[in-house]
Write a structure and sequence with these properties.
single chain, 21% strand, globular
């Protein structure tokens, strides 16, 4: 089985990666670190660089996952990296289903008041729609 750690790339050291690593070690499972480039970011990059294609964006996203993992754990060891492009929450769920993950580790930071008092919209979507157990990690004190 697999533990999926979905990183947003905002942190050089990311507790989502360390939590995913700990879960994978505790349950003797494979760790996959995923970064999803949003459709909007992809479109911006395509507009800025005409020869920027989907393959380039997926490699860029994979490199973000790799960079964050190195920043968090030092070496990367036996960890797989995925880079995807699409609507972030929906793409994370699709990858989790594809890999049949045991746990999904995500960033649980909140963004706005009323309906999202505790969680941002992507986090809320993942918590509500994922079929796997979701571990929401706080980045506080980073």
């Amino acid at each position: 089985m697999t533990v999926l750690a979905a990183v947003n790339g905002d942190y050089e050291e990311d507790r989502v990666v360390s939590t995913g690593f700990d879960l994978a070690g505790a349950y003797d499972e494979r760790l996959v670190v995923l970064h999803v480039m949003s459709n909007e970011d992809f479109a911006d990059r395509q507009n800025a660089t005409p020869d920027y294609f989907l393959e380039n964006a997926e490699e860029t996203a994979r490199n973000v996952a790799r960079r964050v993992t190195r920043g968090t754990l030092g070496g990367v060891g036996d960890i797989d990296f995925r880079g995807e492009v699409g609507p972030v929450a929906e793409t994370i769920i699709a990858v989790a289903e594809e890999l049949d993950v045991t746990y999904l580790a995500i960033d649980g930071r909140g963004r706005s008041a009323v309906g999202k008092a505790l969680f941002g919209s992507k986090t809320q979507t993942l918590l509500m729609d994922a079929d796997q157990p979701v571990v929401s990690v706080s980045q506080k004190d980073q």
